[in-house]
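Severity: low
Component: inverse-folding endpoint
Summary: output formatting inconsistent between runs
Steps to reproduce: submit the following structure tokens with default settings.
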């Protein structure tokens, strides 16, 4: 789930806002990205992938907000790691693009979403968890 936009790194290009399939991000009056609907994040990492400034941090946890701060994100050493490991932009000469491997992760997420929807439908139908 998207956890933080590192404000002093964000150049305001809007790429992350444009690429997000769930409209999680918006542009603030300053032009910089802000998290508007965090709970809607699909953890697809596209915002991180398209951010040329490495200003975004997506935590792999998909079902809850971790509450990570910008300092904590930077301390992980993972900020910008997804772009680097995917061989995008300036990393193309040193890292092979392995983005095709995400197919298995997206399939797992799809199956989890189907299971979650079925469980919600069962709760709605029965008024309780089945």
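Observed output (run 2 of 3):
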């Amino acid at each position: 789930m998207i956890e933080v936009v590192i404000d002093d790194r964000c150049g305001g290009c809007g790429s992350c806002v444009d690429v997000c399939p769930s409209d999680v991000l918006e542009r603030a009056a300053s032009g910089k990205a802000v998290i508007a609907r965090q709970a809607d994040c699909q953890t697809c990492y596209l915002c991180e992938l398209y951010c040329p400034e490495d200003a975004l941090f997506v935590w792999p946890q998909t079902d809850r907000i971790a509450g990570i701060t910008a300092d904590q994100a930077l301390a992980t050493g993972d900020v910008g790691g997804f772009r680097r490991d995917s061989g995008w932009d300036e990393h193309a000469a040193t890292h092979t693009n392995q983005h095709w491997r995400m197919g298995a992760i997206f399939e797992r997420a799809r199956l989890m979403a189907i299971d979650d929807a079925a469980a919600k439908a069962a709760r709605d139908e029965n008024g309780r968890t089945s």
